[in-house]
Amino acid sequence: MAKQPDHSFEYNGKNYPCCTSLTMGVIGGKWKTVILYHLSAGKMRYNELRKAMPMVTERTLSLQLQQLQDDGIITRTVYADKPPLKVDYELTKVGLTLIPLVHAIAKWGHERANG
Q1: Is the Cβ–Cβ distance between 85 and 78 less than 8 Å?
Q2: Closest alpha carbon to 33 in 99, 112, 89, 110
Q3: Quick one: pLDDT at residue 59?
Q4: Which of 47, 65, 94, 101 is the most buried (most CB within 10 A)?
Q5: Rg for the chain (alpha carbons), in Å?
Q6: Bridge-partner residues for 14, per DSSP?
Q7: Which of 33, 11, 29, 9 minimizes the C-alpha distance to 19?
Q8: Segments forming the whole domain that contains residue 56
Q9: Cα–chain-centroid distance for residue 105?
Q10: What is the pTM of this model?
Q11: Is residue 3, in this structure, part of any structural domain at all?
Q12: Number of folded domains that form the chain
């Protein structure tokens, strides 16, 4: 494999030593790819995500959603017209570009799990 050029990459004010670390910095962690996988089907409410991911704690889910929002991968829309408060999460245009990667990761995991 050819040696990659020695320079860093910046994304959203953060520096990464290579393009792979940038990608993993944005989608890395146990739950971010799971969140993206679920949102690939379309907009979801917070409680729908919680039900789809019963093993994640509320705190962790909230933190991961906030990080994805900070990185411009998802948007959070709050509807406060009438109680109860409704919050939707949806992929941005940039977030949509990650879906082929997330589906490839899911396919790889499915193939390993089914031997």
Answers
A1: yes
A2: 99
A3: 96
A4: 65
A5: 16
A6: 11
A7: 9
A8: 31-113
A9: 13
A10: 0.85
A11: no
A12: 1
Measure Cα distances from 31 to 34, 56, 82 in Å. Answer: 5, 8, 31
- Residue count (the chain): 115
- Are 42 and 64 contacting, i.e. CB atoms less than 8 angstroms apart? no
Which residues, in sequence order, are bridge partners of residue 15? Answer: 10
Enter the DSSP assignment of 29.
S
Domain membership of residue 14 (yes or no) is no
Task: Give me 39's structure tokens.
Answer: 């949102």
pLDDT at 23: 87
| pLDDT higher than threshold 80 for residue 3 | no
The continuous run of DSSP H or E covering 109 comes out as: helix 99-113
Residue 4 included in any domain:
no
Which residues fall within 8 angstroms of residue 76, CB to CB, at 6 or more apart? 65, 69, 87, 88, 89
pLDDT at 5: 58
CATH number of 49's domain:
1.10.10.10
- Site of tokens 């990185």: 71
The pLDDT score that the predictor gives to residue 115 is 74
Instruction: Report yes or no on 18 lying in a domain.
Output: no
Residue located via tokens 């962790």: 60
